[in-house]
Specification:
Structural class: mainly alpha
Helix content: 55-70%
Shape: globular
Order of helices and strands: HHHHEEHHHH
Strand content: under 5%
Strand order of the largest sheet: 1-2
Radius of gyration: 18 Å
Amino acid sequence: MVLLRLFLILFIVTFLFSLQGCVSAPTYAGNACSIFDEKYFWFKAAKKSSEKWKVPIATLMSVINQESAFKQYAKPPRKKLFGFIPLITRESSSLGYSQATKSTWEHYKNVTGKRFVTRIRFKDSVDFVGFYIDQANKELGISKKDTYSLYLAYHEGMNGFRKKTYNKKPKLLKIAIKVDNQAKNYNKQLSKCMNKLDRNKYILF
């Protein structure tokens, strides 16, 4: 009986992990309502993170969109020899929806006490983004509604933001404007479909 239970548990765990490889990016990444219509569990996860960390859903989704284009196994490009020969190593250890590095992810796990979170699961990634923005708010005094500055802190890190390293990166400043505008668009879109999404409470998970 015990062996049978262990087998069933192993089967369920294996099945759930196999589903992870089947997660595709949303069809219309530029429309928050379309994203959540297609992936309702993402809405529940984003809303939970938003309520927990007091960060707008639109900001959470805009950061993830920019970082990974909602691709589960997103990774930074490989380093190149002489500027054109791809190497095995990559530019950083970033992975998943949030593009969190290994060290930053470990810090998140240690602070929150979450042991079994993974960067390739949307639920965990959107919680991480909320956590990081909350930290940026506390340490740097950035408003949680200031998506532009929050993204710069997210990309450059807390110390980088303090040192204003972003001022030497004109391309990054343009990207931050893009993220801010995307968040504004997401917010407008969500204002039209939020009630409908909230009514779908019969979905249990």
